[in-house]
Amino acid sequence: MKKINLPQAAATIDALWSPLIVGRVGDTFVKVARIQGEFVWHTHEVEDEMFVILKGRLCIKFRDHDIWMEQGDSLLIPRGTEHLPVAPEEVHIMLVEPVSTVNTGQVEDERTQKDYIFYRD
After folding, report:
1. Is the pTM of this model over 0.85?
2. pLDDT in tens, 44-92
C-alpha cells in the first residue's frame, strides 16, 4: 500500500484530456486528468461517471442547463445523460467510473482513449 497525492499525480500528466489511472476499486477506475477547453458532446449509455474538481473551475453542459463546479465539488452524471465538459482555464479533475467507460462515450474521435496509463510515482 502506498498513498497517492491526487493533485501531484494530475500535475505529472503531459497531455490534456488524457486520464491517468491512479487506482482500481473492484470494477471501477479512479483517474486523474488535466483538461482545458471544450471536450465533445457524449453519452455513456451503461456507465455512471463522477467528476471531482481538484484544481480550477469546470462547467458541465447539458442540453437544458449548465453546472459550474469549483475546487472540492463533485458531480455524478447518471448513465445515458448527454454532457459536455468545458474548462475555460486548465482544470485538474478526478474521475470515478467503471473500467468499461470510454472517455468519449459513443463518439469516436482523436481524443478517444483506448489504452490508459497507470500512475507510477
Report:
1. yes
2. 999 999 999 999 999 999 999 999 999 999 999 999 999 999 999 999 9
Q: What Rg, from alpha-carbon coordinates, does the chain have? A: 13
**pLDDT tens for each residue of 11-54:** 999 999 999 999 999 999 999 999 999 999 999 999 999 999 99
- Neighbouring residues of 67: CB distance < 8 A, sequence distance ≥ 6: 59, 60, 75
CA distance 116 to 34: 14
Q: Which cell is 53 given?
A: 474538481
- Which grid cell sits at 110? 482523436
Give the 3-state DSSP-derived string for the chain, with helices as H, strands as E and coil as C. CCCCCHHHHHHCCCCCCCCEEEEEECCEEEEEEEEEEECCCECCCCCCEEEEEEECCEEEECCCCEEEECCCCEEEECCCCCEEEEEEEEEEEEEEEECCCCCCCCCCCCCCCCCCEECCC
